Amino acid sequence: MSSLTNPRGPERPAVYWRRRLIVFGVLLAVIVLVIVLIVRLASGPGAENTAATPTPTPTATPAPTAAPEASTTAPIDEAATTDPGSAAACTADQIRVEAVVNGSSFAADELPQLSLSVTNTGSAACTMNAGTSQQVFTVSSGEEPYWTSTDCQTAPSDQQVLLEPGKTVSSNPPITWDRTRSAPDTCDQPRDPVPAAGASYHLNTSIGGFASADSAQFLLN
Questions:
Q1: Which residues on adjacent β-strands are paired with residue 169?
Q2: Burial class (CB in 10 A: 0-12, 13-18, 19+), 206
Q3: Domain containing residue 29
Q4: Contact of 212 with 205, CB cutoff 8 Å
Q5: Which of 122, 119, 126 is closest to 87 using CA atoms?
Q6: Three-state DSSP state, 61
């Protein structure tokens, strides 16, 4: 029979509460979903990338250090230091000084070795002070001097030597030039490197007031 002939009464309260709970749960789920979508849209891909990218740590820049100083100690061979006895002092007409470089061309990572030699061209023995206090090495290019051994020389010393006729003595060990400009006020400071890339330089030397007759030419690459 139809419900019209057999009408049903109201349902139990528990049924109504279950329906209300179901509707409330659905509404709560929809609200949570909407909130999640809004948060994601507000964040956007740019914000995610920003959060994922680590901030680089600044690297400390090392402080400049002073360029290594060229050695300015070039004593004469010990074998030449003998008792001068009654020999006279050497004179300009019996002394030949020669500037010596250990090569004619140097690569960018090579340092020239500078030295000098002294020869008694006379017929009699003579004596002279050949110590580092009497030696001067000068590197120049054209008319401009770039480096002089006495600019930053430390602890110069005297050395009396006896030169027999025809005898040659040399400074030993040679001076290592660091390819920088020198000046008395830059001894404890970084110094500028000299021009290279095939630049031509000349070494002139003197000892005891006697200068080398010719310079020694070399190239810096």
A1: 118
A2: middle
A3: 1-53
A4: yes
A5: 126
A6: coil
3-state secondary structure of 103: coil
Q: What is the pLDDT of residues 65-83, one digit of tens each?
A: 344 444 454 556 554 555 6
pTM (two decimals): 0.64
What is the end-to-end Cα distance of the chain in Å, rounded? 117
User: Quick one: residue 155, left, alpha or beta (phi over 0 = left, psi -120 to 50 = alpha)?
Assistant: left
Domain count, the chain: 2
CA gap 176, 71 in Å, rounded: 6
Say how many CA atoms lie within 13 Å of 114 toward its Cβ. Answer: 29
Amino acid identity, position 126:
C
Q: Are 19 and 85 in the same domain?
A: no
Alpha-carbon distance of 21 to 43, in angstroms, equals 33
The structure tokens listed for 31 are 């609200």
Closest CA to 212 of 94, 102, 117, 112: 117
Residue 93 half-sphere exposure toward CB, CA atoms < 13 A:
2
Token pair belonging to 187: 């001894």
pLDDT, tens only, 146-156: 999 999 999 89
Same domain, 39 and 136: no
- Are 94 and 44 in the same domain? no
In the beta sheet, which residues pair with residue 205? 137
